[in-house]
Amino acid sequence: MDKVYDHVQALRGASFEVPDGAVTCLVGPNGAGKTTALKALGGLVRPDGGEVQVDGAAPGTSSFPLGHLGLVLGPDHWVESRTGFHSLKGLAMTSGVPESRVRQCLEEAGIAAVRDRKVRTYSLGMRQRLSLAAAMLGQARNLVLDEPFNGLDPEGVRWLRALLRSQAEEGRAVLVSSHLLAEVEDIADRVVVLTEGRVLAQAWTDDVRRSSGVLVRSGERARVLVLARARQWQVEEHEDQDTVLIDAEIEEVQKAFSQEGLSFTEMRQASRTLEDWFFHVLEEGGQES
Fold first, then answer.
1. SS3 label, residue 189
2. How much is the pTM?
3. Angle, vertex CA 44, rays to CA 14 and CA 100, nearest 5
4. In the predicted model, is pLDDT for residue 288 greater than 70?
5. Crossing angle, helix 124-136 and helix 99-108, to 10 degrees?
6. Structural domains of the chain ordered from first start
7. Which tens digits make up the pLDDT trace of 220-261?
8. How far apart are CA 90 and CA 214, in angstroms?
9. DSSP output for 88-142
């Protein structure tokens, strides 16, 4: 999809899917277009080109919107003079959700004890939890959350990770945006990289984390590089001058070192983190998996 704001191209042919039963993380720097993409999924902005579908239908066309899509766009859209309980109750009443569900969601979000306090007294983390409680009201089949970890303390981050993981395991499609990969490293099943409004890459995290070569530490670095060139191995040099990353199978590297009489102090299979992959994608200009 495409979206332009005041001559600024917020989205440029951005295209991705969010499968059921998985946590998909939309990552990218601030200003990449993540919030615009999420608003389009929620039916809050209309694309200038392309289309958006949620369960095969345009956003906002469901007869029970709260059961179709749970949307969290931040903690700052609440009426500050209302209590947390009445804020959720008002939302529930417009959709026929019973009061008992309101109380249950406040409990699940960990803010039942402050439900009768006015929102103006809530911390940023409490407001974020209130937004999450609202998204859960209709037990939606799809959850879309924009930077949901903002304002949460370490306990809250741990709680939210467990919540999102459980929602996916129950078969829901969960989409989370973040500009901090460390926030989503432990929960992401799939990652989509968005920058300057374009999707540069999307991949399953199992594929991202699989072996990315052999990490070798050796005091004979010069000979190691000669060997790599002779074998036509790609080599990535490390900030530690004695360490290199060789793009080959570990059995092949071990055999070559033995044949050449090369010594090493460490040799192990390397695996990429999401952060490694993310920066590789940015440097290479995009790749899709």
1. coil
2. 0.82
3. 120
4. no
5. 130
6. 3-207 (3.40.50.300), 211-271 (3.30.70)
7. 999 999 999 999 999 988 778 899 999 899 999 999 999 999
8. 57
9. HHHHHHTTT--HHHHHHHHHHTT-GGGTTSBGGG--HHHHHHHHHHHHHTTT-SE
